Q: What sequence folds into this?
């Protein structure tokens, strides 16, 4: 599994981590992604995290919950998380399933996600 | 158009190139004989190979006639083999002669298994089967004898062969079926009778009964290959993704689009996860429907502990592990029809259907 192409790439841009999910992840891969990302938040002293899920064709209850968990952990570690790129069909199915993203910030795409983080920083309201 | 135009002298006298020049002609011959047969290109390549290996022995100028004769032989061999295969397809026994000593041992085991299987048939069944298969009597003449019709005799022969296959496999493996449900299930599988398979709930039995799961392999695959049905065994996390992708693929072939596809895949993901979490093994089967209207049915079966309180399991937010409790109630909202049965200690079956929403 580790020899194949990366399932997720995590790039650093200033103090923001941009994580792009490239393909459908199963539950254990999702948990591994969560652990990698949380570790890198500390390593790179990130203040913002953007998770791009545009490549996911399904976000089921487990995936939603994992994304929310990542955001919760990141907040406790001092970083703000924005989920970007949820496809319209996926959003529809999530609502029908009864899943939302809770308190986690979302944005249409990467650009909007960056703008959202920049907005937070500008107003100085980054940390409570 | 002349069939064999005089070729220019080859400039580099390269043998392989020379032989390759034969290809257009060979393709023409093959097309004329077998048309659009899928093996057409294989025949051309096989012929080229034979011509190439024999090239040293072919006299100059005789390459073309040699190739033409060879291609005819290759085609004739293919027809003969297909014909033989078709004639023998329904048989239990492979008529080709074994060669190695090892194969001879296997063959003698097979023979004794066949006689055991024969002895377990009813007398009348055995007589008719032997009269037809061994003495080569036509179904019509057998029908005349018993005052029946050729069709009825053929149908009976088909049932007898199915039973014979089951008994043969049992005798070969030297096992007695552990439960009294096993034989009916194996028989339904062997005869590729889908209605009967549903009646005896064959898929669930195969999950529960290890012996039948193993024996069923050589028995299945005799019916026509079904492209409108997929079974995905579920045992670990990656199977959840495999199941939902299989469902999506089948559904999109059936005409599902966009949001419906995503809702279906999400529901499959939830029920498959329940199998991994609670039962550790089971299967998801996905089947296209055309009656009463076009749709898709997903059945998730497991042999887990079962669900004690179904009503509560269908409530939002009820979870026995640290989950969100959205799996079952959420799946019910994502699909058009939803049905769940569970037997404590036996397992759970979730059956859900989604119909194609035809616009306009």
A:
């Amino acid at each position: 599994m580790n020899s194949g192409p990366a399932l997720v790439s995590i790039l650093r841009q200033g103090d923001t981590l941009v994580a792009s999910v490239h393909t459908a992840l199963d539950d254990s891969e999702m948990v591994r992604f969560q652990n990698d990302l949380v570790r890198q938040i500390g390593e790179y002293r990130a203040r913002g995290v953007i998770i791009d899920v545009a490549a996911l064709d399904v976000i089921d209850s487990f995936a939603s919950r994992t994304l929310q968990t990542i955001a919760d952990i990141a907040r406790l570690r001092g970083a703000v998380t924005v989920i970007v790129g949820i496809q319209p069909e996926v959003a529809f199915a999530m609502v029908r399933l009864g899943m939302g993203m809770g308190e986690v910030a979302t944005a249409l795409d990467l650009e909007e996600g960056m703008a959202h983080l920049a907005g937070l920083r500008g107003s100085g309201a980054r940390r409570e | 158009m002349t069939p064999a135009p005089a070729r220019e002298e080859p400039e580099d006298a390269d043998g392989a190139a020379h032989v390759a020049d034969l290809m257009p002609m060979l393709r023409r011959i093959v097309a004329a004989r077998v048309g659009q047969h899928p093996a057409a290109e294989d025949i051309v390549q096989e012929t080229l190979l034979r011509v190439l290996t024999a090239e040293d022995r072919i006299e100059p100028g005789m390459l073309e006639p040699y190739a033409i004769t060879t291609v005819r032989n290759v085609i004739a061999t293919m027809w003969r083999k297909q014909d033989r295969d078709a004639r023998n397809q329904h048989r239990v026994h492979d008529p080709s002669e074994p060669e190695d000593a090892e194969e001879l041992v296997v063959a003698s085991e097979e023979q004794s298994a066949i006689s055991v299987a024969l002895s377990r048939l009813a007398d009348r069944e055995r007589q008719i089967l032997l009269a037809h298969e061994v003495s080569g009597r036509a179904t019509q003449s057998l029908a005349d004898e018993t005052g029946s019709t050729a069709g009825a005799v053929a149908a009976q022969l088909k049932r007898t062969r199915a039973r014979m296959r089951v008994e043969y496999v049992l005798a070969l493996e030297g096992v007695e079926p552990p439960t009294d449900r096993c034989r009916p299930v194996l028989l339904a599988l062997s005869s590729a009778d889908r209605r009967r398979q549903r009646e005896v709930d064959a898929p669930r039995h195969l999950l529960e009964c290890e012996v039948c799961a193993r024996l069923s392999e050589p028995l299945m695959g005799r019916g026509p290959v079904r492209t409108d049905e997929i079974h995905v065994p579920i045992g670990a996390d990656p199977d959840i993704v495999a199941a939902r992708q299989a469902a999506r693929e089948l559904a999109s072939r059936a005409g599902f689009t966009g949001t419906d596809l995503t809702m279906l895949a999400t529901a499959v993901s939830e029920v498959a996860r329940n199998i991994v979490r609670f039962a550790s093994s089971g299967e998801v089967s996905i089947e296209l429907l055309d009656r009463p209207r076009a749709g898709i049915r997903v059945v998730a079966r497991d042999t887990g502990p079962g669900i004690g309180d179904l009503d509560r399991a269908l409530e939002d937010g009820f979870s026995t592990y640290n989950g969100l409790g959205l799996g079952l109630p959420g799946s019910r909202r994502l699909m058009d029809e939803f049905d769940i049965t569970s037997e404590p200690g036996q397992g759970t079956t979730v059956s859900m259907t989604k119909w194609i929403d035809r616009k306009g």
In short: Strands of chain B lie at 229-234, 282-289, 295-302, 337-343, 347-355. Chain B has a mean pLDDT of 83. The interface with chain A takes residues 237-238, 240-241, 244-245, 248, 258-259, 261-263, 265-266, 269-270, 273, 276, 316, 323-324, 326-327, 329-331, 333-334 of chain B (CB under 8 Å). DSSP finds 16 helices and five strands in chain B.
